[in-house]
């Protein structure tokens, strides 16, 4: 099973081991932005459509 | 009063009252109960003058039929 | 005829044609242009949300999950934990080119949903077409589940259960007032004196709280007695405040981390990289520590506003940005020279855009009442310092200039005018008005300071800090003056006063006995009987609303709870009480008096045509009114055209205005708020004149049920002020703007052609002088020609950026309903 830690969008938080941010670029009809959502490095990435192997 | 669109005839009050954006004119907006058209109504004469389509309004100053209300000629 | 919008012309050509919206587009920086166009407009278009706007389910779900998890915690702690969970886990984003960040929803196009506010609103959210995120079916199921969970448990549900049943039915009929008696939908003032003047970051506040806890704990281990018993509750409140402030600081650090990640991993442009790193440093500094420069100061303020909005649905935005951020502008631009004037102006523009994009889900009545916007973000500029000296600074000017570049309809400005305001600042105000923004509204500062002392006993120094609590009402930003909750349900549909006086308290529109039975008007034999009936209805109506609101306010700490707002308010930091508790709040309540002038014109028409001239009998009048004037057109025109109307300097009707205001003012001293202070009225309408069009019945001023009401405050009826602007000012000048009420809104339309050039400015300045000399407290201007407005009605696409003043707020003309547009066009264009 692959995990978020193996994903290109995953950025580990140095001060909080195991915890990271899922950072992705989004372009919507009005603006472009980077979004961030907390994820754990051991979260399963199966079922995540945005998973991209590092 | 007779609808200018479908010729339905009834008393003025059978036409649903919508609004009158200019209080000192006798021109109002009513809706025909048969064809649902919005009508510009001369309340003094009790006559429907014309259909009001989207974006039009029958009183003095709005876009559409500026100056139709005779009592607010400006 | 108006020429086609010539967006291809030169700036000079566009200025000559007064096509200010294209001028702005050409003049602003590329960055600002991008940010302005990037905004997802949350204001409803004539009542409907724009395509692409979606309900924020993420925050609602996160909040509910944690709320449910901590079910045994006291309410303030439970809410603190739920908010912390939202702040730690919601999606955050940084828009390209942004230097300021923070949005209370999860994505740029989402509207925040106050899921714990009112079941009625939740049901509306479920049924609102087009706002469910894809996949729609899945979202609908989520919303249904959340609604099931909250049914009967929301703040308003809890208040509704304890209201007097008769009051509740009448209030909920929607006929006599609107709003929700809960801070879940209020608007909170911020204790800017504590945060900004006091230079406190959240870490400093936590130290203050910990000191208070330590003192309190000495008592809980000391001599037993009744006075230590409520300390235990306060200790839990303090813990909740600390918890939520810590979560807020972690939330800001998430932005710092994101900005760094972007800079280090994605960004290739060196300039943008540096911007992102500065943004990261900014979010590491604030809100934890007090700001060091303008960017940090803006960011701090914006974070505070966002956190308050995660906690409650805020319908307004009391702020005084030039006063509180001005010193940082001065430091960066004038002293340290770390920012150029242009860079600072850009930042100011962005600060306004960050507020413009904020929007929460609102029920339909609120959307209709505030067409085109999501709340009344009226920011206060100008005014005086605590010592009475002129408070205008370079940042005041920057805000007025930035407004013309970004041309947002929200926030808008209210300018505190006083005799010491410099000409250069007045010119900037006028330029905004000339550019058709409809703002700033002009407020008479010396008079309003005195008014605040008269009605609420605010000490002079505190009164001088006042900000617009919403569209109109002044409120200090001090420890005991700041108002934690606007009781929006004390918003009265005043036209009902005269309507009920004429129908023995019966409401023919909603079909129930509402007011007291004050007698069959058809048997009244003189005006005094009618006036007596009116007074009784006025007292009944205001009493009912104020009772409801007082109760909602009193119970709010138990039913809702504001850990964050308490955590940033000095009096709660010191006392450990929920800031909404009336303890320590001096009181600054007011009744927003919608549809007020209809009373005056109606009473005057009856007095003149029935009792003085005996042209009609009361019986004939009541029959015609019950028929909605159908079949009585000649008579209706008589009541419109042959009875005196407010705003023409005619003592006959102006005296009635004063009598009504004085009767109400007397009653305002009788009704008390939970702090024991007075309840003055404040006539203004937002766009309630359209919302109530089909709720107010036919009246003797000649309106039919269905017609838009007057545009509000003490503005004369549209088109009925036939004697020119001086007569309007003269009528309004007869009102005692201190003793007769809290403030009085006046709309005026001026001609852009007449006010062109230097001559135009001098005319306007002279007008303002007269306005001030006559002792009026407010005036705001629309300066867009009939031609432009008509062209915009015909071709909305081309004129999508035309802004108009609706009432206490501005909106893009194309976003308001046809009926409201017409109502604005009908207002008389005054030549001054
Ligand atoms: S949530 Fe999806 S996109 Fe984000 S880090 Fe995990 S696998 Fe990657
Ligand atoms: Zn018809």
Question: What does the model show?
Answer:
The complex is a heterotrimer of chains A (54), B (74) and C (832). Chain A has 54 residues and is mostly beta strands. Helix content of chain A is 0%, strand content 39%. Chain A has a three-stranded antiparallel sheet, with no helix packed on it. Chain B has one domain (12-73). Residues 1-6 of chain C have low confidence and may be disordered. The longest helix of chain C is centred in the first third of the chain and has 36 residues, at 231-266. In chain C, helix 4 runs parallel beside helix 7 (136-150), helix 12 (231-266) runs antiparallel to helix 13 and helix 16 packs across helix 18 (394-406). In chain C, strands 5-6-7-16-15-19 form a six-stranded mixed sheet. In chain C, a hairpin with a 5-residue loop joins strand 8 (467-468) and strand 9. At the B-C interface, strand 1 of B face helix 28, helix 33 and helix 34 of C. The structure holds iron/sulfur cluster and zinc ion (ZN).
Number of domains of chain B: 1
User: What characteristic shape of chain B results from the CA principal axes?
Assistant: globular
Strand content of chain B: 25-35%
> How much helix, percentage-wise, in residues of chain B?
under 10%
* Average of per-residue pLDDT values of chain C: 93
Shape descriptor of chain C reads: globular
- Identify every distinct bound molecule in the structure, by name, code or SMILES: iron/sulfur cluster, zinc ion
What gap, in angstroms, lies between the N and C termini of chain B?
A: 27 Å
Strand order in the sheet with the most strands of chain B:
1-2-3-4
Assembly state: heterotrimer
Class inferred from helices and paired strands of chain C: alpha/beta
Q: Distance between the terminal alpha carbons of chain C, to the nearest Å? A: 23 Å
Low-confidence stretches of chain C: 1-6
SSE inventory with pairings:
The complex is a heterotrimer of chains A (54), B (74) and C (832).
Chain A: E1 10-12, E2 19-27, E3 32-40
Antiparallel strand pairs in A: 1-2, 2-3
Chain B: E1 16-19, E2 27-31, E3 38-42, E4 47-51
Antiparallel strand pairs in B: 1-2, 2-3, 3-4
Chain C: H1 11-16, H2 20-27, H3 30-38, E1 54-55, H4 57-69, H5 75-89, E2 92-95, E3 110-111, H6 119-127, H7 136-150, H8 155-162, H9 165-172, E4 177-178, H10 192-197, H11 202-220, H12 231-266, H13 270-285, H14 294-311, H15 321-335, H16 341-356, H17 364-369, E5 378-382, H18 394-406, E6 412-417, H19 423-434, E7 441-444, H20 445-456, H21 460-463, E8 467-468, E9 474-475, E10 491-493, H22 495-502, E11 506-507, E12 512-513, H23 527-559, H24 563-567, H25 570-575, E13 591-594, H26 597-612, H27 618-626, H28 633-641, H29 651-670, E14 681-683, H30 688-691, H31 725-733, E15 747-750, H32 757-773, E16 778-782, H33 786-794, E17 803-805, E18 810-812, H34 818-826, E19 829-830
Parallel strand pairs in C: 1-3, 5-6, 6-7, 10-13, 13-14, 15-16, 15-19
Antiparallel strand pairs in C: 4-10, 7-16, 8-9, 11-12, 17-18
Bound molecules: iron/sulfur cluster (SF4) and zinc ion.
Residues 4, 7, 9-10, 22, 39, 43, 45, 48, 50-51 of chain A line the site of iron/sulfur cluster (SF4).
């Amino acid at each position: 099973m692959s995990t978020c830690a193996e994903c290109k969008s995953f950025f580990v938080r140095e001060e909080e081991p195991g915890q990271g941010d899922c950072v992705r670029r989004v372009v919507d009809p009005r603006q472009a932005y980077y979004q961030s959502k907390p994820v754990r490095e051991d979260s399963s990435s199966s079922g995540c459509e945005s998973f991209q192997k590092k | 009063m007779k609808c200018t669109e479908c010729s339905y005839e009834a008393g003025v009050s059978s036409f649903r009252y919508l609004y009158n954006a200019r209080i000192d004119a006798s021109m109002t907006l009513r809706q025909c109960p048969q064809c649902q058209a919005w009508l510009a109504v001369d309340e003094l004469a009790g006559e429907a003058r014309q259909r009001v389509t989207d974006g039009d309004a029958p009183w003095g100053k709005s876009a559409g039929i500026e100056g139709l209300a005779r009592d607010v000629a400006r | 005829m108006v020429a086609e919008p010539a967006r291809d012309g030169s700036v000079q050509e566009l200025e000559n044609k007064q096509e200010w919206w294209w001028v702005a587009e050409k003049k602003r920086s590329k960055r600002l242009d991008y940010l302005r166009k990037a905004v997802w407009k949350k204001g409803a278009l004539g009542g409907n949300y724009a395509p692409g706007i979606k309900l924020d389910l993420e925050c609602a779900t996160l909040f509910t999950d944690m709320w449910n998890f901590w079910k045994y915690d006291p309410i303030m702690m439970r809410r603190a934990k739920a908010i912390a969970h939202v702040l730690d886990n919601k999606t955050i984003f940084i828009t390209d080119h942004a230097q300021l960040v923070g949005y209370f929803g999860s994505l740029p196009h989402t509207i925040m949903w106050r899921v714990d506010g009112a079941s009625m609103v939740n049901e509306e959210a479920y049924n609102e077409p087009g706002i469910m995120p894809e996949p729609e079916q899945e979202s609908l199921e989520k919303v249904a589940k959340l609604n099931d969970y909250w049914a009967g448990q929301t703040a308003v549900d809890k208040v509704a259960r304890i209201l007097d049943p008769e009051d509740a039915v009448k209030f909920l009929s929607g006929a006599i007032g609107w709003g929700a008696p809960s801070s879940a939908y209020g608007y909170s003032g911020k204790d800017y004196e504590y945060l900004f003047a006091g230079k406190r970051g959240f870490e400093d506040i936590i130290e203050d709280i910990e000191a208070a806890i330590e003192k309190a704990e000495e008592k809980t281990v000391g001599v037993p007695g009744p006075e230590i018993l409520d300390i235990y509750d306060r200790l839990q409140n303090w813990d909740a405040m600390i918890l939520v402030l810590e979560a807020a600081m972690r939330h800001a650090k998430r932005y710092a981390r994101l900005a760094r990640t972007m800079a280090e991993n994605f960004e290739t442009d060196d300039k943008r990289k540096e911007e992102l790193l500065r943004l990261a440093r900014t979010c590491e500094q604030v809100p934890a520590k007090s700001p060091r420069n303008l960017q940090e100061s803006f960011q701090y303020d914006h974070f505070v506003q966002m956190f308050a909005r995660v906690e409650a649905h805020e319908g307004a935005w009391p702020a005084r940005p030039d006063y509180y951020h001005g010193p940082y502008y001065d430091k960066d631009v004038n002293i340290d020279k770390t920012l150029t004037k242009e860079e600072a102006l850009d930042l100011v523009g962005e600060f306004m855009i960050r507020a413009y994009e904020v929007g929460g889900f609102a029920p339909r009545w609120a959307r209709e009442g505030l067409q085109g916007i999501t709340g009344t973000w009226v920011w206060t500029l100008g005014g005086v310092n605590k010592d009475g000296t002129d408070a205008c600074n370079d940042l005041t000017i920057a805000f007025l200039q930035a407004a013309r570049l970004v041309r947002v309809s929200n926030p808008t400005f209210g300018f505190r005018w006083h005799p010491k305001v410099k000409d250069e600042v007045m010119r900037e105000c006028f330029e905004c008005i000339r550019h058709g923004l409809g703002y700033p509204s002009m407020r008479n500062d010396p008079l309003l300071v005195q008014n605040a002392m008269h009605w609420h006993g605010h000490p002079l120094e505190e009164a001088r800090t006042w900000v617009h609590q919403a569209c109109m009402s002044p409120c200090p930003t001090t420890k005991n003056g700041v108002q934690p909750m606007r009781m929006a349900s004390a918003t009265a549909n005043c036209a009902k006063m005269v309507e009920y006086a004429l129908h023995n308290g019966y409401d023919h529109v909603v079909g129930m006995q509402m007011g007291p039975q004050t007698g069959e008007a058809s048997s009244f034999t003189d005006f005094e009987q009618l006036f007596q009936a009116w007074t009784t209805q006025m007292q009944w109506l205001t009493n009912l609303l104020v009772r409801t609101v007082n109760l909602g306010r009193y119970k709010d700490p138990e039913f809702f709870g504001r850990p964050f707002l308490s955590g940033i308010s000095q009096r709660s930091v010191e006392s450990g009480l929920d800031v909404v508790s009336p303890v320590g709040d001096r009181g600054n309540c007011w009744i927003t008096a919608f549809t007020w002038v209809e009373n005056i014109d109606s009473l005057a028409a009856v007095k003149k045509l029935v009792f003085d001239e005996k042209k009609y009998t009361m019986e004939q009048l009541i029959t015609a009114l019950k028929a909605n004037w159908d079949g009585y057109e000649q008579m209706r025109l008589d009541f419109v055209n042959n009875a005196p109307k407010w705003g023409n300097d005619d003592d006959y009707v102006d005296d009635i205005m004063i009598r009504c205001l004085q009767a109400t003012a007397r009653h305002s001293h009788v009704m008390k708020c939970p702090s024991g202070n007075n309840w003055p009225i404040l006539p203004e309408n937002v766009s309630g004149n359209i919302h109530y069009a089909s709720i107010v019945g036919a009246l003797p001023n000649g309106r039919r049920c269905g017609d838009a009401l007057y545009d509000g405050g003490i503005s004369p009826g549209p088109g009925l002020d036939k004697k020119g602007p001086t007569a309007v000012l003269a009528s309004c000048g007869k009102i005692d703007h201190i003793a007769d009420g809290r403030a009085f809104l006046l709309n005026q339309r001026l001609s852009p052609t007449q006010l062109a050039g230097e001559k135009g400015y001098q005319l306007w300045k002279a007008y303002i002088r007269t306005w001030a000399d006559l002792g009026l407290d407010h005036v705001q201007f629309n300066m867009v020609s009939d031609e432009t407005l008509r062209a915009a009605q015909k071709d909305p696409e081309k004129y999508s950026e035309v802004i108009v003043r609706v009432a206490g707020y501005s909106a893009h003309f194309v976003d308001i309903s046809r009926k409201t547009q017409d109502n604005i066009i009908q207002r008389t264009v005054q030549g001054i």
